[in-house]
Amino acid sequence: MERSIGLIIVIAIVTIIQIVAIIYAAHLIRRTKYNLIWILCIVGFLLSLVHHFLQLFPREGHTIDSGLFIALDIATSLCIVLAVLFANRLVNYLDRLNHQRALFNKRIMTAVLRTEERSRSTFAKELHDSLGPLLSSVKMSLSALPGENLNNEEQELLKNTRNIIDEAIRSVRELSNNMSPQILVDFGLAQGVQSFITRIGALHKAKIDFQTNLRKERFDNDIEVILYRVICEFINNSLKHSGCSEITISLQLNDDTLKLDYADNGKGFQPRSVADCGMGLSNIVSRIDSLNGELDIRSSKGKGMQATVIVSLKQNLITTKPKKRWQRRLR
Ligand SMILES: Nc1ncnc2c1ncn2[C@@H]1O[C@H](COP(=O)(O)OP(=O)(O)O)[C@@H](O)[C@H]1O
Ligand SMILES: [Mg+2]
Fold it and tell me: What is the mean pLDDT of residues 161-165?
């Protein structure tokens, strides 16, 4: 008798759990378009409930054929197995949805980067073509002023004004060049990077060694601009944050891939801890993502910083095929 009371309690608990599961599954029918999974679950649970009900309340004088129990068990198992098989379709659907979402985000990112680059270029041109000639005219007008009739003080003032105008003309040229480097547009990646290194190297003590097997090859504009910006950001970071004495950069074209190896011998940092806070590094991550490229940044305190970027030239910027897994690693 004690044993049967124990059994009754267990069956009652299982029944309650299954009723809750049925209610929840019924609720899910309306939430997903794969409602067959939940319907099968409900049928499975209901059959199992019938099984328990017959066990709990056997009708007086009737003995239940054990074949009925077996049939109920088989039907329950079938429902659950079919539900699991259909669940696989739901998982595939979710995978497809995630892929589409990633593709959509990448499209937005690429559009943002292109728009940003276009407005930089327009602004740089405006600056160069409007303010540049104006300052040059001021300089010419000043040069036309007769200097002989001026006293020493006035001559000094004129000299200073000329120097300031020269400085302003240089700044406008530099600013416009930094915003949209003409040499990158005209001569390509290797020359653009070399020109940046020459300019920035003159202002810092660190030795910058740039090796490349690129000559006059030209790539998709997005690839050139993004790799150029990434290299500039790496160099700026090394010079600004690391206190390094040496930077080595290697940019190699092998078959259909461009590989950038970058290293400095500075104080190093924890890439993970700054991954979400630094604008520069997170821009690098999203720029390389938008090219479907691979990025690996390695650094630790006292051990300098090393980075590898690999960009496939064949792969479209926005692919409609299921994505090749692109890596993004910050170690
Ligand atoms: N080469 C490097 N050496 C040492 N620290 C670095 C280096 N690059 C980045 N960092 C660290 O990572 C942080 C984030 O860099 P970044 O995202 O470029 O932002 P920002 O340069 O504007 O500070 C920096 O503030 C710096 O602490
Ligand atoms: Mg930075």
Answer: 93
- Domain final residue, candidates 108, 125, 150: 108
Q: Which domain holds residue 203?
A: 184-331
Residue 128 above 90 pLDDT?
no
User: Which three-class secondary structure string do you get for the chain?
Assistant: CHHHHHHHHHHHHHHHHHHHHHHHHHHHHCCCCCHHHHHHHHHHHHHHHHHHHHHHCCCCCCCCCHHHHHHHHHHHHHHHHHHHHHHHHHHHHHHHHHHHHHHHHHHHHHHHHHHHHHHHHHHHHHHHHHHHHHHHHHHHHHHHCCCCCCCHHHHHHHHHHHHHHHHHHHHHHHHHHHHCCHHHHHHCHHHHHHHHHHHHHCCCCCEEEEEECCCCCCCCHHHHHHHHHHHHHHHHHHHHHHCCCEEEEEEEEECCEEEEEEEECCCCCCHHHHCCCCHHHHHHHHHHHHCCCEEEEEECCCCCEEEEEEEECCCCCCCCCCCCCCCEEEC
Structural domains of the chain, count? 2
Last residue of a domain, one of 84, 108, 132: 108
How much is the average pLDDT of 79-83?
92
Residue 328 pLDDT exceeds 50: no
Ligand number with the minimum distance to the CA of 244:
1
CATH of the domain at 259: 3.30.565.10
Q: Candidates 208, 237, 246, 299: which one to mutate for ligand 1, based on the most atoms within 8 Å of Cβ?
A: 237
pLDDT value for 47: 92
Q: Is the CB of 180 under 6 A from ligand 1?
A: no
Give the mean pLDDT of 296-305.
92
pTM of the predicted protein model: 0.68
Q: Are residues 200 and 327 in the same domain?
A: yes
